[in-house]
Design brief:
Elements (H helix, E strand, L loop, with lengths): L7 H7 L9 E10 L2 E7 L8 E2 L2 E3 L6 H13 L2 E13 L9 E12 L8 E7 L13 H12 L2
Length: 154
């Protein structure tokens, strides 16, 4: 028998989206065009307000390359040519992030399109990889950009 003291609103307060109990695999792309790299600013958590590389989660059964091309297209509308792996970043749960992510970052060249951001992003900039200026960036971005720049070459 149902407990009459459990109201619908009280039960809905109990329903929250819990983070997965295991790490999530994601990809990101350092996309180079005319010596500059594309940085995007996250419009929501995790990473809200920080500039980073476009990318996102890998779906079950999807290769890293396919996931990366899909995520870049979804977030920015760009077509890219993936050059190679430029590093990884692990994001562990903390007071600001509830999930555990392993982000595989790749160097890529711009092929076609102009940035058209989806609702996950609210700004973009093409910047020289060694001149991030006063941009608020995600942790570990500098070394990934340096490796990506070496892979892409002049």
């Amino acid at each position: 028998m149902r407990n009459p003291t459990l109201t619908a609103s009280w039960r809905s307060d109990l329903v929250t989206i819990a983070p997965p109990a295991h790490p999530q695999l994601a990809t990101s792309a350092a996309i180079f065009r005319d010596g500059k790299v594309l940085l995007v600013r996250r419009a929501r958590s995790p990473g809200k307000g920080f500039y980073s590389l476009p990318g996102g989660r890998v779906e079950f059964g999807e290769s890293l390359a396919v996931a990366l091309a899909r995520e870049v297209m979804e977030e920015t509308g760009l077509t890219i040519d993936i050059v190679g792996l430029s590093g990884f970043r692990e994001v562990l749960p903390n007071d600001k992030v509830t999930g555990h992510y392993l982000i595989m970052s790749f160097a890529a060249r711009w092929v076609a399109g102009e940035p058209r951001l989806n609702d996950e992003l609210d700004d973009f900039q093409w910047v020289a990889p060694d001149d991030l200026g006063a941009l608020k960036t995600t942790d570990g971005l500098g070394p990934i950009l340096a490796m990506a720049e070496d892979l892409v070459g002049p």
